[in-house]
Design a protein that fits this description.
174 residues; mainly alpha; 0% strand
Length: 174
């Protein structure tokens, strides 16, 4: 039987320290930091005369440059693009991270301009289209197109890659 001491409730200093450790350890967005701090408040409770103002703390961290949604969006967009994900999947991931449309604009433009390279990386990773060892049968072809679509690529782009014979790379888009 373990006798764990209960974790004390948070106060303003402890909440700020938690936030500092979190942004020091992880690249994050305002929305993700706010969700983390809210979860910690629910888990540990609050021990201060005034209510916790998470929004003000997150705003202060943004003013200080500890949290920058635009930079986070660009970094996350580039990382997902390198893994072969398409623009739609990248946009949805950024939206889920709480990045608003104005902070997402540059990342969305980057994802759109890199869509051909991302599709190439995805096809190589999944060994489909020109990276396949043999042509796909109709059922495998449908599964490969579905995989492209789940990865956030549009249907026309997916078909161009899937319909390419093994070793025969499709012409790059303009």
């Amino acid at each position: 039987m373990t006798n764990k001491r209960p974790v004390p409730p948070l106060d303003e200093d402890a909440l700020r320290d938690l936030a500092l450790r979190y942004v020091g350890r992880f690249a994050t967005s305002r929305g993700k930091l706010q969700a983390y701090l809210s979860r910690k408040l629910r888990e540990r409770g609050w021990d201060a005369p005034s209510p916790a103002d998470i929004e003000a703390l997150v705003d202060r961290f943004a003013e200080l440059g500890y949290v920058d949604d635009s930079s986070f969006a660009l970094m996350k967009s580039a990382a997902l693009g390198r893994r072969g994900y398409g623009a739609r999947r990248i946009t949805e991931t950024l939206r889920a991270a709480g990045i608003d449309e104005s902070d997402r604009a540059t990342a969305d433009a980057q994802a759109h301009s890199d869509r051909w390279a991302a599709a190439d990386r995805f096809a190589r990773r999944k060994r489909i289209g020109p990276y396949a060892t043999q042509p796909l049968d109709p059922k495998q072809r449908d599964k490969a197109i579905a995989a492209f679509l789940r990865a956030g690529h549009d249907y026309a782009l997916a078909r161009r890659w899937i319909d390419s014979a093994p070793g025969d790379w499709p012409e790059a888009e303009d």
